[in-house]
Design brief:
The structure holds two protein chains of two kinds. By secondary structure, chain A is α/β, with parallel strands linked by helices. Chain A is built from ten helices and ten strands. Chain A is globular, with a radius of gyration of 19 Å. Chain B is mainly alpha-helical. Chain B has a domain of 195 residues: MetI-like (MetI-like fold). Chain B contains twelve helices and no strands. In chain B, helix 10 runs parallel beside helix 11. Classes of the chains: A alpha/beta, B mainly alpha. At the A-B interface, helix 2, strand 6 and helix 4 of A face helix 9 and helix 10 of B.
């Protein structure tokens, strides 16, 4: 399931995307990428390769310098402020350090995913449609947090917070998830649980996802397609099984990769046995 | 002990750690020795010369001490009753002035604070709002009060305007600092949901600065009451007016009563505002 083979059926199409920061750093250098609907894709690469910049250029939290981003036939680059806000509702974002609003409750954080659909005063008085609140409770129950609805977000553990972060994105009824290092601050076991949950939820809701991730073993375990980014260019794009020592060297540079590859295979076998 | 002892005296590089340790001193505040001693000597010379020019007339001071004692004894016993109506009126005026000016000042300071936060406002708006803050903070309340008394006449309206104006500078500056210190990721996450700008403020920023907003408001209420007592001295109404009048009429016992009332209210404000600030942190 290669992006470039998906043809015109792609959900997200990125063409010649470049980003140069005011400091002069070229974070992205002509990236072309297509993601078909429902595909979970891992984006790997060393720190500073431009992974975060790439997904932030998709929903224009960062303004790209050049290139086009097209989601579901709509060109995101060049949208005015109002249209961009409406377009952002279709792209859920999940963050590295959860980025929950710490002083709001779990329920408020989940409901904040509906802000794009709700008027200002309705959201100020927390008067969301009954349907939204019901959906929020359904999702909270799905991830085992229904009892925590009125707890403050900062009272939760890391894994719980990231679940809330995922639900906030799902509440937007997105077509695409932009996921930025979802496991960076989690322990190995919780990391695997969160990745599994993400993949399951994507399947349940038919979502495509771009997951930035440092951990190569996790990427190989949970994503079928892997894209490698190095210095703002795509240097690898293929199925998880094709990611060998050669590809890793192309992405990260020279290193002994035999252990990394073996560990990922073991993880997959464990997964199959479980 | 074991770790240190087991290391050889000289490392592979021939570096002598013991000798380096003997020679080590904490780096001085001013690196250049000549500049360091010049600053020390200069400060000393200045202090000596300054003391030399001080003229103290001890006889005059002793005389003043005695007069001061007589003045203080006039304070006792404090008289709450004979000018009770005036005191009550001044007090109510002060309290009204305090509450109204705090509410107006905070309401006006919030948009200024938003504009004065570099992470929210574009540069021109930022500069305008910082200029408003600078003007409000440059002048001491008394000076502003004199201007307002000249503009709108004697009485509590001038005091109210003064305190509102001073509140804007105080609140907007401190609130803007807090807004600039928020966790950007939380606001970014709210923005990423497709929220509008006002929703970003209400959901991404307000929850992060609310404790500080409440704490500063309570603190400013406390400051405004204290200031309102002073503003009367330049004719801007309130309890300060009552105090000033009683001094002018040599009614020191009434003045003492007013001072005691001010002390009690300031203490009450102080304690309640610090209690509120503790609660919301």
């Amino acid at each position: 399931m290669r992006g470039d083979e998906a043809g015109d059926g792609a959900l997200l199409r990125i063409k010649g995307l470049s980003k140069r920061y005011p400091t002069g750093d070229l974070a992205l250098d002509g990236v072309d990428l297509a993601v078909p609907p429902g595909q979970v894709m891992a984006l790997i690469g060393p720190s500073g390769a431009g992974k975060s910049t790439l997904i932030r250029c998709v929903n224009r939290l960062v303004e790209p310098t050049a290139g086009r981003v097209v989601l579901d036939g709509q060109e995101i680059t060049g949208l005015g402020a109002g249209a961009l806000r409406r377009a952002r509702r279709r792209m859920g974002m999940i963050f590295q350090e959860y980025a929950l609003v710490e002083r709001l409750t779990v329920m408020e954080n989940v409901l904040s995913g509906r802000l794009g659909y709700t008027g200002f005063w309705a959201s100020w008085f927390r008067r969301f449609p009954r349907r939204d609140i019901e959906q929020a409770f359904r999702l909270l129950d799905r991830v085992g947090l229904a009892q925590m609805a009125d707890k403050r977000a900062d009272a939760l553990s890391g894994g719980q917070r990231q679940r809330v972060g995922i639900l906030r994105a799902l509440m937007q009824e997105p077509a695409l998830l932009l996921v930025d290092e979802p496991t960076a601050s989690l322990d190995p076991k919780t990391s695997r649980q969160i990745m599994r949950l993400l993949v399951e939820l994507c399947e349940e809701h038919g979502l495509a996802a771009i997951i930035n991730i440092h951990d190569v073993a996790l990427a190989r375990q949970f994503a079928r397609r892997i894209v490698g980014l190095r210095a703002g260019r795509i240097v690898f794009d293929g199925p998880a099984e094709a990611l060998g020592a050669e590809a890793l060297t192309a992405i990260y540079g020279e290193e002994d990769w035999s252990q990394t590859i073996r560990r990922a295979d073991e993880d997959e076998m464990e997964e199959a046995a479980a | 002990m074991s770790a240190a002892a087991s290391l050889p005296a000289r490392g592979k590089t021939g570096f002598d750690a013991a000798a380096a340790a003997r020679a080590w001193r904490p780096p001085p505040l001013i690196a250049a020795p000549w500049l360091r001693y010049a600053v020390y000597l200069g400060a000393l010379a200045y202090a000596v010369l300054a003391f030399g020019t001080l003229e103290v007339n001890w006889a005059r001071a002793a005389e003043g001490l005695e007069r001061g004692l007589r003045f203080l004894s006039g304070f006792f016993p404090p008289d709450f009753t004979s000018k009770g109506d005036d005191i009550l009126e001044g007090l109510m005026e002060s309290l009204t002035m305090t509450v109204v000016s705090t509410v107006i000042g905070i309401a006006l300071s919030i948009p200024v604070a938003l504009g004065a936060s570099r992470n929210l406002a574009p540069l021109p708006v930022y500069l305008v709002c910082r200029a408003i803050i600078a003007v409000s903070r440059t002048f001491q309340e008394i000076i502003i009060a004199i201007v307002f008394v000249a503009m709108v006449g004697f009485g509590p309206l001038a005091g109210m305007l003064t305190l509102s104006f001073a509140t804007i500078g105080f609140m907007a500056k401190l609130l803007a600092e807090d807004i600039e210190d928020i966790e950007a990721a939380q606001a970014e996450a709210v923005r990423a949901t497709g929220s509008s700008w006002f929703q970003l403020l209400a959901w991404g920023i307000l929850p992060q600065v609310r404790p500080r907003l409440i704490g500063l408001s309570a603190y400013r209420l406390d400051i405004n009451f204290r200031e309102s007592a002073v503003l009367g001295l330049v004719g801007a109404g309130g309890i300060g007016d009552t105090l000033n009048t009683s001094f002018d009429r040599y009614e020191f016992d009434t003045a003492a009563a007013v001072l005691l009332i001010i002390i009690v209210i300031v203490l009450a404000c102080e304690y309640s505002s610090s209690w509120i600030r503790r609660k919301v942190q």
